[in-house]
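Hey, sorry to bother you again with one of my protein questions. I've been puzzling over a protein and I'd love to understand its fold better. Take your time with it, there's no hurry, and the full record follows here:
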Amino acid sequence: MVNYYDILKVSPKSSGNEIKSAYRSLARKLHPDRNNGSKETALKFAAIAEAYEVLGNAKERARYDRRLADIHFSENGNSESVFTSTNRHAQRWRQMVYEKRYNDIIDRMIAEERREAMAFQKAIYPLVALLVTAILAAAAKPKIFAEAGMFGKIVIVALFIAGVIKLISRIKDAFQRFTDVDDDIHDSILDDGERKARRFPRTAAAFALGAAFLLCVGIGLVIGMYTDFAATYLPSMFSTTFGLEFLLYLPIVTFFVDLMHSFASGLDR
C-alpha cells in the first residue's frame, strides 16, 4: 500500500495545516511549469496531488489511517490474522484497536482546531492592540519619553525594541499562516474549494494592514484636533502638539497585550 505520509514527507501525527504546507511546498517545487514539462517531475507531482487529496480531507484521512492500521496489525498479510479471525475475542480486540485509532484521530483533529484558534488569537490580538493604540497615541500625543530621565529613557527604548521584535514576529507568523503568495502557479495547485476559502493574497493583506494603520492614525489626529483632554489633565505627560514620539508606544502596548494573552492562554490550558 502506498504511504501517502512518506510521499508528502510528513508524520502521521502532522496537523492538517502542516500537511497542507508540505503539499504546497512540494507542489510549487514539482509543478510542470517550473520543470519544462519533465515526465519524471510530472509523475511526482501527480503522486503528491493524490496523497494530498486523501490526507487533506479529514474523513478520507481517517479511512486511510484505518487501512494503515489493518496492515500494521495484520500478521504480515497472512489470511489468518487477528484482523480477519472470526474468534469473538479477536473481534473484541479488533474493535478496541479501531476505537483507539479513531479516538487518536479525533483527539488530533481537536488539538489542531485548538492550535488554529490559538494562532488566530496570537495574530489578531497584537494587531488590534496596534491599531487601537495608534488612535489613542495620536489623539493624546504623549511626551513621556521627552520628559523622562536617563533611566526612564533606557527602559522605554528597551521595551520599544522588545515590542518591535515581538510585533514583527507576530505579523510574520500571521502572514505565513493566513495569507497566500499571489501567483498563477500557487493558484493552479488549489482546488475550487480552496480557492473560495482563500483569505487574502499576501500583498493585498500587507496593503490593507498599512491602510488600516494610517486610517487609525488619522482618526486619532482628528480627535486630537478637537480635544486635548490628556494634555489638560496631565500636562507633564501629554502634549498639545503632535510628534513622532507617539510611535514609541505602539509596539510597547502591543508587547504587553501579547504578554497578557500568553499568560491567560497558559492559565486556560
